[in-house]
What we know:
Layout: E1 3-4, E2 20-22, E3 27-31, E4 44-46, E5 51-55, E6 68-70, E7 75-78, E8 92-94, E9 99-100, E10 117-119, E11 126-127, E12 141-143, E13 148-152, H1 161-164, E14 175-177, E15 180-181, E16 184-185, E17 188-190, E18 198-202, E19 205-209, E20 217-219, E21 224-227, E22 241-243, E23 248-249, E24 265-267, E25 274-276, E26 289-291, E27 296-300, E28 320-322, H2 339-376
Parallel strand pairs: 1-3, 2-4, 3-5, 4-6, 5-7, 6-8, 7-9, 8-10, 10-12, 11-13, 12-20, 13-21, 20-22, 21-23, 22-24, 24-26, 25-27, 27-28
Antiparallel strand pairs: 14-17, 15-16, 18-19
Amino acid sequence: MFSGSISHFCTLSTHFTATVLDLSDNQLTGELPDCWIFTGFLELLNLANNKFSGEIPPSLGSLFRLKMLHLRNNNLIGELPSSLKNCRELRMLDVGGNKLTGTIPQWIGTDVANLKVLSLRFNKFHGNIHPRICHLADIQILDFSRNNISGKIPDCFNNFTSLVQKGNSTESTRFYLYPISGNHFERVPYIDTYADNVLVHWKGRESEYRKLGILKGIDLSSNKLVGTIPHHFSDMRGLVFLNLSRNHLTGSIISSIGQMEMLEWLDLSRNELSGKIPNSLAELHFLSVLDLSYNNLTGMIPLGTQLQSFHPSTYAGNSQLCGLPLAKCPSDHGHGGKGNNIEEEEDDEFISRDFYICMVFGFITGFWAVLVTLFLKHSW
């Protein structure tokens, strides 16, 4: 519950040698001091969950060793300073939950291309997502949700090598202390509890993860994105969650979505998607959270263990969608996810009605034919 300003931070000696500075989860206020040039040994700076205001100071760009920068959930304004492109060792940049403006800087995809986590969520960023963002080969969490981002989704997300690969494809970041022993620095391993400390909006709630492990996801929800979902999304076989809800996306759900076999959470709700739900969606055996509501989807929900187990609200707002768990599809409509199943249903319906009628009529006719013959043929 520490409070007050940290402006006196500028009076620190130039011999400041800490590698980790964590002031998170307090009640600190005021503007961030613009004198970080004296803290060149910092590898992690965590000022999250306070009440800091003003702009992000440009001198943060002088922290050449910085690997993690947490500024989330404050009242920071302005744009991301271009000086941050000098922090080429950044692995995690989390500025979510502020009032930052401007466009997403192109230097993020070029100068700080080693990012594992990039969270710009819940700000006021606008403009398009530049294709240079696709240079982030090691990215595991990409969160641009709840902004004013417009335009199309770049058709190059399959360049995210970490998301294409299944499993934990990136190493955790370790930090070191540099305690002064006389005039010498002693390099001592520091516990890596900060290695993957990140806030993720996961399955409807915010959760803080100390270890990312195989958790990989993209959240572009609550923006103004248009166009179709790129077909190359299906190449991201390591993706665990995908949230594209509350945009203006059109077209159909990609037919090869079943290739994203690690998906546990898929939210495409409140867009303008049309067409049928692809059969391959029923092949996602890890899928535990699904929301396709309020689109223009049509036809029959594909048959499978997963899709019929979800609550009907999963498919709400699609008036021409039918099949379990919604109302049964009309038998004379050629809708549906699997044509063979429809033909089998029609065949079964034929056997259970016309076939048995003919069978009974044939039995009666045959029986009386034998009986009449017995009456006429006295020898029999």
